[in-house]
Amino acid sequence: KPRILLMGLRRSGKSSIQKVVFHKMSPNETLFLESTNKICREDVSNSSFVNFQIWDFPGQIDFFDPTFDYEMIFRGTGALIFVIDSQDDYMEALARLHLTVTRAYKVNPDINFEIFIHKVDGLSDDHKIETQRDIHQRANDDLADAGLEKIHLSFYLTSIYDHSIFEAFSKVVQKLIPQLPTLENLLNIFISNSGIEKAFLFDVVSKIYIATDSTPVDMQTYELCCDMIDVVIDISCIYGLKDDGTGTPYDKESMAIIKLNNTTVLYLKEVTKFLALVCFVREESFERKGLIDYNFHCFRKAIQEVFEVRMKVVRSRKHQSHMQKNKRPTPNGTPR
């Protein structure tokens, strides 16, 4: 499984991010979280696309501690998220970022380095832009001074009090999905043949979108989609379960239509038990709902085929690693 590391100084908001995105904790409740004092690992396996491990590191981790095997940790890492508290003096954080990135890059040059400039809800719009520009400039200058200009850092302005943290995590996760170009291509074909303006493929549990079409993502559009998923799940939990409380609030029958007051329709359909397609459609285009549903049926079938190919690849890799283990010689020199 790809590994995502959450790193940064103490009290920068790492554990809060994890709890809000993957455990549905209310942002206000994160104020009572204790500081992390050991590495916390968690499996995220909501679907065969969203499938990774998150390692939450304590802020006081010491790379020079001989008991800290950073080579083993960085070798299996897909993305390293470094969280910087934008409301604090970030000079120490930038120094730690530089140390972390240079160490990680030497062990594994393929790591994606993602910088979350966090807690921006307390800053004005001008201050946000200025802070991002300053951190971007200083971090890249430090790398240039060390002769490491080829290391690419991605920067995101984030807060747990709005949807920015979900969008940033979506971008991080998308880079770890090898099938992303295929998914984007399928969505492009689907919207162009259905008269749809924008479509997202969402992981329902975390509200991370694992793919969207090639048109630009508007934050307001994304927030509406997230709110729609919440509404559908909440109503299904009240009215969709059986009398004895059994059943699931999200299944293959899940579907929702919400008409907005600006002649736009939000349309949600179940793709798999963990994935949903959320579309933005103009009212006049939604009159051809039969065409949209037929194209959706073709889209869902194509997604299932992508799933099957991925599962075959995973099984093949497991089989190969098992065969290699069995071929290892035993201590007396004969194969197992």
UniProtKB/TrEMBL annotation:
Keywords: Cytoplasm, GTP-binding, Hydrolase, Lysosome, Membrane, Nucleotide-binding, Nucleus. Belongs to the GTR/RAG GTP-binding protein family. InterPro entries: Gtr1_RagA, P-loop_NTPase, RagC/D. Its main location: cytoplasm. It is found in: Cytoplasm; Lysosome; Lysosome membrane; Nucleus. It catalyses: GTP + H2O = GDP + phosphate + H(+). Guanine nucleotide-binding protein that plays a crucial role in the cellular response to amino acid availability through regulation of the mTORC1 signaling cascade. It comes from Aptenodytes forsteri (Emperor penguin). This is Ras-related GTP-binding protein. GO terms for cellular component: cytosol; Gtr1-Gtr2 GTPase complex; lysosomal membrane; nucleoplasm. Residues 316-328 have a biased composition (Basic residues).
